[in-house]
Amino acid sequence: MIRIHRLLSAAALAAVFANAALAEAQSDDDQLSLGGPPASNPSKAHAPLEMTYFGAAGWRMTDGDTVVLVDPWPSRIPYGGAAHPDDKRPSYGRTDPAPVDTDLIDQLIPEADFILVQHGHFDHLGDVPYIAKKTGAKVIGTETVVMILRAYGVPGEQLYAVQGGEDYQFDNFSVRVVPGLHSALDQKHYHDSRRYDQDTVLEAPLRIEQFIEGGALSFLARLGGRSILTMGSMNFIEREFEGLEPDILLAGINGSRMGLYDYDRRLLQSTGYPAIVLPTHWDNFRLPYSFSQQDNVEKKLIPFVETAKKISPNSKVIIPVHLEPITLP
Predict the structure, then answer these.
(1) Which of 144, 175, 232, 235 has its CA 20 to 30 A from that of 249?
(2) Could you report the per-residue pLDDT of 245-254, keeping only the tens digit for each?
(3) Which CATH code for domain 45-318?
(4) What's the pTM?
């Protein structure tokens, strides 16, 4: 495993948290779209839940006892070309060995109990081998994901290979595995049927291109008396979402969804018009945390907020800021 040793400077951290001004600058009316948790439902017993967005499809969620990570990728390595001319970090090609920013991960992820991996691409799985070995977290993902983690030496007792349909109970946490679809990339020409299985021979460190999709999943995570439906792509199987009715939806919101029929309405309707919607996988994930994401907020998220108001007026859409915890009481 290639390790990049780079501490997040105090200035960079300050720039990250300064992005919270996006929420603070809005009027009270705009708080529907830009932050502030909704009032708790007194008829439903639950613990306070803290949600933190790592960028891409990555999240940390905890009820104070159990820490669950979803597709954590804090390294945010620029690959396939630099994402910004002011980003002076080395850029990597898809044939390069996959790098990991271990110092940054150590700052941001001191512990984890579970890691949910929605598919095997590098921006979802690239940091998981290091995090899993560092924390001892249980990892749930497809067989492709499990084979990649085995190649990196993650112990088998931490790994749970799933295909969709499973519903597992652990101490203080349960999770239903939901079959999914990858985003319709490349003008809907993207399709990758490759899979790794128990006969696949992989040698770490893998090249970036060896982090194949391997099938896509969502998860219905139950934590602290709430249900959270995750998405790792801008696509979904409508019938698999129907009836789940999550309290919180991590909604895939990026440009490729615009090529799908009536995406926003179908998503909100099939999930039962969730009380809380947190957009995910909307940022430029090849940029460091210190860089602004306001362009993506204005072009992708604000239009979604306005659309969601019309489709599901009782849903609260909260735009997450990188590394800023959202506390839902």
Answers:
(1) 144
(2) 999 999 999 9
(3) 3.60.15.10
(4) 0.88
